[in-house]
């Protein structure tokens, strides 16, 4: 059974940085595309970034140039480095594979990111 555990969220001032981490069990992240998603209050969950098994990355336009997704195959983790955070980045952040996300499966509890002065 796939289990995804996100961590690293918190309260940060505009312009600040956070690094999120996703630990996985029941799935080998090195062999699958992984993604970070976020859900802001009153909005649907949206894709933020993905990284393929080969290391190719995709970023939503709103975070491109500010966020960096990476993976550590040895630790079976995926991270999201977030720089130049803005209030509109406030959301609960989740990791998942696009395949599971499409089926609305395997979501973890997420980690809250709040950007506020």
Key traits:
117 residues, mainly beta, 6-stranded mixed sheet, 4-stranded antiparallel sheet, 1 helix
Outline the fold blueprint:
Elements: E1 3-7, E2 10-12, E3 18-25, E4 34-39, E5 46-51, E6 57-59, E7 67-72, E8 77-82, E9 91-96, H1 98-102, E10 111-115
Shape: globular
Please count the helical segments: 1
* Beta strands, count: 10
Largest sheet: 6 strands, mixed
Rg over CA atoms? 13 Å
Q: Tell me the distance between the termini.
A: 40 Å
Mean pLDDT: 95
In N-to-C order, the SSE pattern is EEEEEEEEEHE
Strand order in the sheet with the most strands = 2-10-9-4-5-6
Contiguous uncertain segments of 5+ residues? none
| Strand fraction | over 45%
Output the structural class: mainly beta
> What fraction, in percent, of the residue positions are helical?
under 10%
Summary of the model, kept short:
With 117 residues, the chain is mainly β. It has one helix at residues 98-102; strands at residues 3-7, 10-12, 18-25, 34-39, 46-51, 57-59, 67-72, 77-82, 91-96, 111-115.
Mind explaining what this structure looks like?
With 117 residues, the protein is mostly beta strands. It has one helix at 98-102; strands at residues 3-7, 10-12, 18-25, 34-39, 46-51, 57-59, 67-72, 77-82, 91-96, 111-115. The chain has a 6-stranded mixed sheet. It has a 4-stranded antiparallel sheet with strand order 1-3-8-7, with no helix packed on it. A hairpin with a 4-residue loop joins strand 7 and strand 8.
């Amino acid at each position: 059974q796939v289990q995804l555990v996100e961590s690293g969220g918190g309260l940060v001032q505009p312009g600040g940085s956070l690094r999120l981490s996703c630990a996985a069990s029941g799935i080998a992240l090195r062999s699958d595309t992984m993604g970070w998603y976020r859900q802001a209050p009153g909005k649907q969950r949206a894709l933020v970034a993905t990284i393929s098994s080969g290391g190719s990355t995709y970023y939503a336009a709103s975070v491109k140039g500010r966020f960096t997704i990476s993976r550590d195959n040895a630790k079976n983790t995926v991270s999201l480095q977030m720089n130049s955070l803005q209030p509109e980045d406030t959301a609960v952040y989740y990791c998942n594979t696009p395949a599971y996300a499409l089926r609305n499966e395997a979501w973890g509890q997420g980690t809250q990111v709040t950007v506020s002065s």
